[in-house]
Specification:
With 270 residues, the protein is α/β, with parallel strands linked by helices. It has one domain: 3-Layer(aba) Sandwich (Rossmann fold), CATH 3.40.50.300. The protein is 35% helix and 17% strand. The protein has ten helices and ten strands. A hairpin with a 5-residue loop joins strand 3 and strand 4. The two termini are 31 Å apart. The structure holds adenosine-5'-diphosphate and magnesium ion. The site of magnesium ion has 5 residues, from helix 1.
Length: 270
């Protein structure tokens, strides 16, 4: 199976973006999705916009990279109710704006985080109410008055499943995080294709953990397209994760944060 990957040109136009940044971060497990999501959300907030960070990974990650520490609880408990036929719906009076106001955790730089919680030893059963509320809120972000102006950064789980099942309807852009390895590059191509099967979306590749320009070239050659951005392999990222802290708080001027800042600036222009 060959064929050209349909990807937007890395820099779509020189003009300023009209609306807010609305991205979902995808890629293989361990590629660096949470680090890039959390850091990008913080930097977007520092540039003055309202930011909603959405963690739809049932494995822990985004809260730490945002600087909120290891939060694992379901935030939207009680936001949804189940009707007699078993369907979940948001409780009366809880729209997307109210849900963000009432249930999101406020993090550093004023970033709001919503998460449905993390898989428990009993699986997702105990957090189904929160999970359903989360899904419904994310589907209303595009149509809810005040929230239309918010930047949205979604940290998706590894692989293409959530993108395929419409877990990021708010995103016009999928950032596909890719490491300089064959497995990561092959996964990235697959995920990009699936994610952009929804009309009106584009995939932009971000090379992560690169050791110099030869790694970026390797990725670009194998993808057959230019990378939108590149983030260097940086021991400061690993050290921050070891401490359960956000790299932007621990080592704000490190090369990885600097590269993600460049990425955010490009996104705001894209
Ligand atoms: N640019 C980078 N340089 C060095 N290590 C990184 C970099 N980006 C991510 N990592 C490390 O890779 C691991 C996976 O990162 P994470 O963001 O949790 O991935 P994902 O969310 O895609 O599973 C973590 O240990 C993190 O510290
Ligand atoms: Mg993660």
């Amino acid at each position: 199976m060959s064929g050209t990957l349909i990807i937007a040109h890395p820099v779509r136009s020189a003009a300023l973006r009209v609306g807010p940044v609305r991205i979902a971060i995808v890629g293989k497990g361990g590629a660096g999705k949470s680090v890039i999501s959390g850091t990008a959300a913080r930097l977007l907030a520092r540039r003055g916009g309202k930011v909603l960070a959405l963690d739809s990974d049932p494995m822990p990650g985004l809260a730490i990279s945002l600087g909120l520490g290891p939060l694992t609880e379901p935030f939207l408990e009680g936001a949804a109710e189940q009707s007699d036929d078993g369907r979940w719906r948001l409780r009366k009076g809880i729209g997307a704006a109210r849900a963000v106001q009432r249930f999101a955790k406020v993090g550093p730089d004023g970033v709001r985080l919503l998460q449905f919680g993390k898989a428990t030893p009993e699986g997702l059963g105990p957090i189904m109410g929160s999970l359903n509320a989360f899904f419904q809120v994310t589907h209303r972000l595009a149509t809810t008055g005040v929230l239309r102006e918010w930047n949205v950064v979604g940290d998706l789980p590894a692989g293409p499943r959530q993108a395929a099942f419409d877990w990021a309807p708010y995103a016009d852009t999928f950032l596909v995080v890719v490491e300089p390895t064959w497995k990561s590059i092959l996964s990235a191509r697959r995920i990009a294709r699936i994610a952009t099967s929804r009309a009106g979306t584009v995939a932009l590749f971000v090379a992560n953990k690169v050791h110099g320009s030869s790694d970026v070239k390797l990725i670009e050659d194998r993808l057959g397209t230019a990378a939108f951005g590149a983030v260097p392999a940086d021991p400061a990222v690993i050290e921050a994760d070891r401490r359960g802290a956000a790299v932007i708080d621990e080592t704000p001027a490190c090369p990885a944060v600097t590269a993600i800042a460049r990425l955010v600036d490009q996104l705001m222009r894209a």
